[in-house]
């Protein structure tokens, strides 16, 4: 008799394990406790008050109407916590992605607002598809090819461009957008005599207020005995306060007319309509490079933020599931009039510090912004752009990471050089070319390092079983046996380097009768390296020198057996330990 299909075993009803793995919200929803609610509500409100002005500012940075930033903060904020593995990551528009979106738009629709929005929606769609596909295919490891030095240099360069792109709004200058950073700086300097001093005063005052709330006020409140939970809502209310005060000043004194202060203007009221991206092949192909760069940078920024906060609670972040969640969030943005989003580190830190316990806090943030879009957009009409510029500048200046450059330069000049090259490439050629060149630099550094591996001639330390580099330790070596250790996997790019090193070492030691390769650090020997090894063995035999291996790892040994190399060399040429090999070959 065939067993009856139950709900758990039916192919039409996914198991609980499947749901908990692919929809992580089931985990925190199932275990939700009433004590979590206050923290989630508080965090959701605080992050919403921070995200509303930031989202409009970042949309303007991307060359889009401010409402597009608000739209991009609704669906993604609700979708991500259902699929993401971080319980505190705040997803929405961020500065670096906005700059990259703006660069892509400027190439295709420099002055057409409707087309710019359509391109931004299409970018969100492509970014979502790419991230979703990479996550479902479990290919999240690919982003590891962007090294820390390259990412830091890229983000620092992008932050400089972002900050300078807002100087024109801060000074009230009418300067056309340009991809060239140096041309932008020249335009700003050339137009300084046309500074709108009222706009500058308003912008500088906003920057000062934001900086004051960020640090001096916090220290003052701490000195007065306030608790961190009481300080956070006050200190993080600064962007919203700047928006309110700036709007009231422009409205009350008619500064938009009397002093020529640029304002946000009309923002459509109501939830965004369902939007459809461009699906013609030519547009998709043209946007694909930018979408790929935005997807990689956005994922790395969001994942790094989520992981750092998860570590504080000893929680686990799944890299591939995060890609799925980011992909779904971007698809949500694409179909609701938004543009590419990711996890914002600063907002996530605020969410965490405000007491967020689960993804409910993010959902509350999304719902509050939806309410704002439905009923409160008219309040932003007189919001001055110089105040939004101040918000962006104070948000991105911390991204300029010269401390990492100093540390890397002291530790490894190659990493420091990669940082510098990426940084100046971003400034000179733009963000897309900068990240592409950065990836090539990171890959090139990896290839250079692995193609020039550290190889040490080793000897016995005293009477122990340990063998160490003869240049670093006082060791006993044999004039008959050349024992060397290669600290890298053996593959096509470095096999010749090993051969050249070995030939030079043998030429300097005329009494050598045996060569022992210590394989303790070799995890892989590829086919090209194996051919070179076979040739090397044959050449050494002509010199009456025998070739031996020790400490070969199991997976490597399995392949050498399967291909016949063990039989070719002889089983007696393999030793379990270097100690056994040297006792047999040199009696030391």
In summary, what is this structure?
Helices cover 62% and strands 5% of the residues.
Which word captures the global form?
A: elongated
Proportion of residues in β-strands: 5-15%
Q: Tally of extended strands?
A: 8
> What fraction, in percent, of the residue positions are helical?
55-70%
Mean pLDDT across every amino acid position: 90
Count, helices: 27
Largest sheet: 6 strands, mixed
Q: Can you tell me about this structure?
A:
It is a single chain. The protein has 588 residues and is mainly α. It folds into two domains: 24-444, no CATH class; 455-585, 2-Layer Sandwich (Transcription Regulator spoIIAA). It has helices spanning 16-22, 25-30, 36-61, 66-71, 75-83, 95-108, 113-136, 148-170, 181-191, 197-214, 216-223, 228-235, 238-253, 255-258, 281-312, 319-334, 345-353, 360-375, 385-396, 402-411, 413-429, 431-451, 495-507, 527-542, 554-563, 565-569, 578-585; strands at residues 91-92, 342-343, 455-460, 467-469, 481-486, 514-518, 546-550, 574-575. The strands form two sheets. The protein has a six-stranded mixed β-sheet. Helix 23 links the parallel strand 5 (481-486) and strand 6 (514-518). The chain is elongated. The model is unreliable at 1-13 (pLDDT under 50).
List keywords for this structure.
membrane, single chain, 62% helix, transmembrane, secondary active sulfate transmembrane transporter activity, Transcription Regulator spoIIAA, transmembrane helix, elongated, mainly alpha, 2 domains, 588 residues
How does the SSE layout of this entry go?
Elements: H1 16-22, H2 25-30, H3 36-61, H4 66-71, H5 75-83, E1 91-92, H6 95-108, H7 113-136, H8 148-170, H9 181-191, H10 197-214, H11 216-223, H12 228-235, H13 238-253, H14 255-258, H15 281-312, H16 319-334, E2 342-343, H17 345-353, H18 360-375, H19 385-396, H20 402-411, H21 413-429, H22 431-451, E3 455-460, E4 467-469, E5 481-486, H23 495-507, E6 514-518, H24 527-542, E7 546-550, H25 554-563, H26 565-569, E8 574-575, H27 578-585
Parallel strand pairs: 5-6, 6-7, 7-8
Antiparallel strand pairs: 1-2, 3-4, 3-5
